[in-house]
Amino acid sequence: MGCFVSTQKDTGGNRRRPSNIGEVSVFVPGLRIPKPVDFSQSLSDSLNKSSVEGLSALRSRIVVVAGQEAPTITRTRRRTATQHGGSTLGDLLQALEDYLPVLLGLVKDGSPLQHKVQFVWVNQEDEAEETAMYSAWYEVLSILHLMATLSLSQANLLLLPRTSLDGYHAKVSEESRRSSIDVFLKAAGYLDCAVRHVLPQLPIELRRNLPVDLAEGVLRALCLQALGQGVDIQLGLAIDSTKATLAVKRRLACEMVKYWQQAQDNIMNLPLANGWGEKHRLFVKWKYIEAKAAAYYYHGLILDEGNTEKSHGMAVAALQAADEYLKESKKACEAFNASVPVSRNPPLWGTMKYLSEKIPKDTSSKVRINKDLYTSEKIMETAPTLPDFALALKPDEYQLPLVDASWNEAAKNNGQLISNKPKG
């Protein structure tokens, strides 16, 4: 019951790992690709033919689209239109949403059917080439992870700057930025549901043998970084607004630090392999450092509004810290882009475009002014502690859908008593 198989990678693997993923504004984890499953062999003695065929058709659609289009989705600088005018990404997300209510029939009310089918997925971040488990909950977890991955890919597409009409400045429209926040919250909702409602359904021995892509720490880190990038966009919008005060900007920047710190805490000790996993860790490190540069900058500006020698000294220390973190973030960014699969930064825009110009300029100015007023010995050598704010941005409340109505008919045809009670 619930046994698993992990196959070690070899030169003939099916990971479809790209060597270059183009421009990255949002880290998108390596896609987990489903392999075909023979439902008829596992379920023909438990379900009627139409139910088995329905499951097979829905999952086969996912296998085909994910397998053929994974390189296109991963290389986010290209967006493929389908014959229906939508995107491949949208088609795959719709296929997953169609499949999930039918899949949940296998686990409804603790059904023994949940252990009859072996589900196989190719891993990107794990040492193993693929992981197979006789667990429908493993399949549900994999589906939610893929839905979150596609949402993060969609956010990246929204946040890649486009050259403006004047042909000089690459920009991301306000509409795209606001839309990306909704997409980040949706991705965080899928991941939060996976951690709180799906992982607990798996026995401890299966949870221990999940690929690292699906480890609780990785799922939590992805959720937190989606929220952290959502706050980053909010900060950029606040910077553009004449109504947003320094206090509002500092609060957003300090919250962003906490999200990225928690994301880093969740993946720091995980056995992430070279490649996607290591790139994931480097992205979190880079964004955490970047967030600290923003937070110390705004904290320094507010401290400088004080009228005491101490407040001015603390302001200088905070601004110097911001400048050091900004320099460090550039090195962390280079390390992220250089790691395989290699990537590159889009043209600088938003929060970091503004801060990359302001932090060195304002730090130099404040240090010069305050060192004229006070002796260098009185300038604090260590940065002041950042204020601690409660985290305001939360994941969307995503709930697993109700079991598809087709299971009621299947119950009648098979003489099973499948209740129509909604999941709690």
UniProtKB/TrEMBL annotation:
InterPro entries (alphabetical): BRO1_dom, BRO1_sf, BROX
Listed SMART domains: BRO1
Region (Disordered): 1-20
Pfam families attached to this UniProt entry: BRO1 (PF03097)
Residue spans of biased composition, Polar residues class: 1-11
Residues of the BRO1 domain: 25-424
Family label: Belongs to the BROX family.
Full protein name: BRO1 domain-containing protein
Organism from which the protein derives: Buddleja alternifolia
